[in-house]
C-alpha cells in the first residue's frame, strides 16, 4: 500500500495502472530505450511512470521540479525525451519553454500536495485542451509482455555547469542480486519483512528515488510526506508506525530545533533503520540524533555516478566521530595525490571510489566527460579526505567548486554563466559558505561595470527568471575588483578567506 494524505492505493491497483500506462507509452513510441521525461512531486503517478517506462526498457528522466523553462528544455533535448509527464501546478514555470513537439501528459495535483505548497485550486487542474494522465492511462489496454526492465537516467551537473545524464548499463541477474544485497546493507530495506517507509525527500534526486523504488519493489508500506516539516514528520511516524526513512542532515538540524516538549510528545519507538547521506553531518548533530532516536541512525557516502561504496552504523559513528564510514561489500575507496600516486594511511588526498556490484555508467552522449571522470576504474566525488588505519574515511575539504546545500548539489559555474549575461555585471564569483541549517549556502561576489546601478534584488530577480530558486544566492556583495590569480582566474580561496575573516559581511 502507498499512502499520501487521506489517499491510499493497494499494490494490486497500482500495478494495474502501471500495466495500462506501459501500454499507453508503447502507443506513443516509447520503446527501444526511448527516454520518458518526468517532472512530478512524490505521488502515486510517479511510481506509475517509473515502473511503466522501465517495463518497456526505457529510462525515466526525473526532472527537479524547481527548474525553470530553459533548464527543463535543455534536459529534454539532451536526453532525447519527447514525452513529459508533469504535475499541473508545475506547468506555468516551464510551459513557454517546452519543445513544440513534446507529448505532454498532465497529472492533477492532489489536495495534500496543493495544501503543502499553497497551490491555488485553479492550478491543480489539468488545463483545457491538454491530456489528462489518468484519463489517458485508463483508456489503454494493459501491457501483457514480460517487463524488460530499465534504470532511470539522472541529470547531474558538471563543473562546466551543463547537466550530464548518468546512464547505467544493463545489469545481468547475478548483478541484480548483488545490488539488492547492497541495498539491504545501506538502506536497511529487505524483502519479506514488515517495513513502513516514510518518503520525506523528493524522488527526482537519485538517492531518495533509488530508496523509494527499492521499497516499492519489496512491497513495503510507503507513506509519502508531501513536503518535509519537522513536526509533521514526527506525527506521521507515530500515526503509521514508521520503521525506515532516508534523510539528509538539514532535516536533523530542523528536528533538533523543535522545542523539547514537542520532541517528547510523539512515540517514535517504531523506528528501526534511518539512513542519511548527500552531505556531511556535523558530529554534534549526529550524536544528538542518536541520543534522541537511539542507535538506528546510519550513514552512507556516494554519488549518482559511484553508487554507494561507503557506509557506517550508529556504533561506528560514536566510536569514530566525524567518519563518513568505510567500504562495504563491493565498495572500493582510494585516496590519490595530485601526481596520481596513492596516499598513505592518514594522508589527505582526492577521494576516488566506486560500488563495483552495480553496473558501470556512461554520461549520455558525452564519452569524453566519462573518460575524464575515470581514474584507475574509480570516480572522484570532488572531496579531499583520508583513510585511517582501520579503513574509515574522513573528509577534509572540497576539491571542486560544488556546493552542497540542504543535500542538493549546486555548481557555481552554472550560476556564474547566467549572471555574467546580466547587463552591468563585469565579472562574478559564486561559492559556498558554512550554514548552520543547510550545511552550506551560496554566496556571490559581483564586480559591476563602471556607472552601473545594480542592486541585490535586481540580480536575484534576474537569476530567478533563468534558474531554479535554490540556485539563487541569498548573500550578494559588490566589489570594485575581484581578487585574481596571475592567470587572471578569480581567486575563490581568497574570497572564502575574506568571508571567514568577516570582511565580506
From TrEMBL:
Residues 414-489 form the AMP-binding enzyme C-terminal domain. Residues 3-356 form the AMP-dependent synthetase/ligase domain. SUPFAM superfamilies: Acetyl-CoA synthetase-like. Its EC number is 6.2.1.3. Keywords: Ligase. It is an enzyme of class 6 (ligase). It comes from the Bacteria. GO terms for molecular function: long-chain fatty acid-CoA ligase activity. InterPro entries: AMP-bd_C, AMP-bd_C_sf, AMP-dep_synth/lig_dom, ANL_N_sf. Belongs to the ATP-dependent AMP-binding enzyme family. This is Long-chain acyl-CoA synthetase.
Amino acid at each position: 500500500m502507498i499512502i499520501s494524505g487521506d489517499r491510499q492505493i493497494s499494490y494490486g491497483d497500482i500495478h494495474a495502472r502501471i500495466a495500462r500506462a506501459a501500454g499507453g507509452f508503447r502507443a506513443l513510441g516509447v520503446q527501444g530505450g526511448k527516454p520518458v521525461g518526468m517532472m512530478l512531486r512524490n505521488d502515486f503517478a510517479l511510481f506509475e511512470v517509473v515502473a511503466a517506462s522501465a517495463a518497456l526498457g526505457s529510462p525515466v528522466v526525473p526532472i527537479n521540479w524547481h527548474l525553470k523553462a530553459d533548464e527543463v528544455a535543455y534536459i529534454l533535448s539532451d536526453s532525447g525525451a519527447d514525452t513529459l509527464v508533469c504535475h499541473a501546478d508545475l506547468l506555468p514555470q516551464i510551459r513557454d519553454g517546452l519543445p513544440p513537439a513534446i507529448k505532454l501528459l498532465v497529472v492533477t495535483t492532489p489536495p495534500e500536495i496543493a495544501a503543502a505548497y499553497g497551490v491555488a485550486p485553479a492550478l491543480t487542474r489539468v488545463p483545457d485542451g491538454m491530456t489528462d494522465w489518468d484519463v489517458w492511462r485508463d483508456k489503454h489496454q494493459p501491457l501483457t509482455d514480460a517487463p524488460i526492465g530499465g534504470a532511470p537516467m539522472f541529470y547531474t551537473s558538471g563543473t562546466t555547469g551543463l547537466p550530464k545524464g548518468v546512464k547505467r548499463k544493463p545489469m545481468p541477474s547475478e548483478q541484480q542480486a548483488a545490488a539488492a544485497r547492497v541495498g539491504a546493507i545501506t538502506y536497511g530495506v529487505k524483502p519479506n519483512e514488515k517495513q513502513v517507509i516514510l518518503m520525506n525527500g523528493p524522488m527526482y534526486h537519485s538517492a531518495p528515488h533509488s530508496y523509494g523504488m527499492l521499497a516499492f519493489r519489496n512491497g513495503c508500506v510507503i507513506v509519502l510526506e508531501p513536503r518535509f516539516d519537522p513536526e509533521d514528520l514526527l506525527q506521521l511516524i507515530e500515526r503509521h508506525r514508521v520503521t525506515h526513512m532516508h534523510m539528509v542532515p538539514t532535516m536533523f538540524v530542523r528536528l533538533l530545533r523543535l522545542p523539547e516538549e514537542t520532541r517528547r510528545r510523539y512515540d517514535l519507538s517504531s523506528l528501526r533503520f534511518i539512513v542519511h547521506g548527500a552531505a556531511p553531518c556535523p558530529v554534534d548533530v549526529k550524536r544528538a540524533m542518536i541520543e534522541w532516536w537511539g542507535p538506528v541512525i546510519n550513514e552512507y557516502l556516494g554519488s549518482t555516478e559511484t553508487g554507494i561504496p561507503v557506509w557506517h552504523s550508529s556504533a561506528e559513528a560514536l566510536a569514530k566521530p566525524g567518519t563518513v564510514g568505510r567500504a562495504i561489500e563491493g565498495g572500493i575507496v582510494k585516496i590519490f595525490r595530485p601526481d596520481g600516486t596513492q596516499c598513505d594511511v592518514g594522508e589527505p588526498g582526492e577521494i576516488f571510489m566506486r560500488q563495483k556490484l552495480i553496473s558501470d555508467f556512461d554520461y549520455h552522449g558525452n564519452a569524453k566527460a566519462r573518460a575524464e571522470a575515470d581514474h584507475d576504474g574509480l570516480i572522484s566525488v570532488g572531496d579531499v579526505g583520508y583513510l585511517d588505519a582501520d579503513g574509515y574515511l574522513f573528509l577534509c575539504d572540497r576539491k571542486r567548486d560544488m556546493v552542497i546545500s540542504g543535500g542538493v548539489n549546486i555548481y557555481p559555474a552554472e550560476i556564474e554563466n547566467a549572471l555574467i549575461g546580466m547587463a552591468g555585471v563585469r565579472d562574478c564569483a559564486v561559492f559556498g559558505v558554512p550554514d548552520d541549517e543547510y550545511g552550506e549556502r551560496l554566496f556571490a561576489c559581483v564586480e559591476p561595470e563602471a556607472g552601473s546601478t545594480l542592486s541585490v534584488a535586481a540580480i536575484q530577480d534576474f537569476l530567478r527568471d533563468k534558474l531554479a530558486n535554490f540556485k539563487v544566492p541569498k548573500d550578494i556583495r559588490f566589489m570594485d575588483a575581484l581578487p585574481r590569480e596571475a592567470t587572471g582566474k578569480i581567486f575563490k580561496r581568497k574570497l572564502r578567506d575574506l568571508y571567514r575573516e568577516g570582511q565580506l559581511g
